[in-house]
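chain below, 265 aa
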Amino acid sequence: MKIATFNINGIKARLPRLLEWLEEFQPDVACLQEIKSMDAQFPRLEFEAKGWTIETHGQKAFNGVALVSKHPIDDILRGLPDMTTGPEKDGAVTPEQARYIEGTIKGVRVASLYLPNGNPQPGPKFDYKLAWMDKLINHADTLLRSEQPVVLAGDYNVIPDDIDCFDPNAWVQDALTQPESRSRLQAIINLGYLDGLRQIKPTGPAYSYWDYQRGAWQKDNGIRIDHLLLSPEAADRLSNADIDRVPRGKEKASDHTPVWIEMTS
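prediction:
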């Protein structure tokens, strides 16, 4: 069972490339982020025509997550439990954003999540990021107690360690590297989850995002912010993991590229 996470940075701009990648890579499940589309406007028919099952949790122009699967998706949860409001803006709270979807696929509980960026920090956006992460920690703990295989996949907007960044000094003030962000990601791991990629490739740089500016892709000036965290029951079945760099090098590519794991039956 192959599960991938892919921040596509807009379904309208990336649809041909996404369908091409799905056809070539053939994941069992693709967890998408930043679909930037309301559910009613998502091009569902293009996926269903090729045999994919799809569930979305979207909003207009921003954020949005989806699950694309070769198999049925059951018991769907849209929205992170207990996360009821969005970031503060001009002294007022805003509606909660579409950043989380979860379902059961072939006995595995799979979530696609798009964690808030948090910049600029300090400030309301960073406070929202930390509050969102606290709710994620609570929910991850609840899922762990179910003793079923769980995969929390997505764009975490957290660089776990300096090795996951081409130039740590350039990111010292960024929300993605702050101790508060990193410690919360570590808190999920402390519950018992494992970083799927690092179980297979424990050392060395491994990037999943390259900015569109300053020739970052050509220079390989990347960062690793897309992660698949596995419960012990899922980690016991882990057989392989890697980053598929091919999509990032294509024309009209997302600034992210897929990260994937493979699990035995």
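The domain at 2-263 is CATH 3.60.10.10 (Deoxyribonuclease I; Chain A). The chain has a mean pLDDT of 96.
thats it, cya
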